User: Fold this.
Amino acid sequence: MQQETRTTRHNDGLFAVGSPVTHWSVQTSNPVQYEIRACENLLDPENSTILEDASGRGGQRRFVVTDRVVDSLYGDRIRAYFAHHGVDHRVLVLDDGETHKSVNAVLQVTEALDAFGVDRRREPVIAIGGGVLMDIVGFAASLYRRSTPFIRIPTTLIGLVDAGVGAKTGVNHNGHKNRLGTYFPADRTLLDRSFLATLDERHISNGLAEILKIALIKDARLFDLLEQHGADLLHSKLQSPPAIGPTPADVPVDQRLAARGLHLDPATEVVERAIQGMLEELQPNLWEKVLERVVDYGHTFSPTIEMHALPALLHGEAVAVDMALTTVMAEHRGLVSGYQRDRILSVMERLGLPTWHPLCTPELLGEALRDTVRHRDGKQRLPLPVGIGSAVFVNDVTEAELGAAAEVLGTLASGVSR
Assistant:
């Protein structure tokens, strides 16, 4: 006679099966909440935003991580800020750039955390820098004592609209882009566009590539803004116009404009729409349980191109090359018209982005596609634009199609690439 299997529920999510028990079933959930806040003048000593811990844990010690470029520009102000508030602090300065995005950098952070003696919960680590720096610190925070809260303060455009708003951390490993990483969102991300004023135009272009990605796959209005104002945004480094009239300058720019009956200025609207669009895609699928993600547009071939080109290409530049290639593929499939293709490539030119690279060979693109298939669980799940502002996923791209698209792109790019 078959023995009856008995399931005993001990509490919500914990079950014992069998008598005697043969196995236990554990079900639990991990609710996630994090804050992204637009701010101004974060390093003003009279501004206490950085020290306002969202969870109320408080603490008067802070461990700060930055990189050599940021430290040369803002290091004195960072140290003066914490000294002004009487906060015991240490600033760790890492080497900057994608070539230093490694496990060794993560271990350097964790060892410095040990030396500082950071409290596990009350003293959030503060990362002040670009996307590379925030990925390193986030990875270290996720590992240190299995989770230590951290705060992100992006100083680059790509950090502000992309790396700073999601939940992923990671470092390059074994010749691959972000091969090691975790899902570990910062408690807070504080966005201050005034940091962008010290970037060179190439690094503004780098971030504009990720903004263009959102425009192409889901926001035609954002594309129109880039098409109309892209060159000005590049040259102004996405700084908002100064206040006009008696409205106090410390009032946020959107409120200043609203007081005069005006809409958001282009820089503010572009950044806001880019972040909103990114978060709309990330929030329902933060842990990437669903592998068809439109925000993967521009990220099928770019990781391989970027790693092979280091240090010649920045991340956003590699993404732009990927988007140009897949735009040509989409045109060949009848998803994008020739007119729309030309508009897209022209906007890339205005944003200072490359549309082709010598590494766009059938061999390397085929290698990239095979690695992407492994990353996306056995399918290509490759996003292609449909017109401007929408996308579709395909799983039937061939290496012959890649080679043909690369050849056409090389011809087209000779007239538009910098």
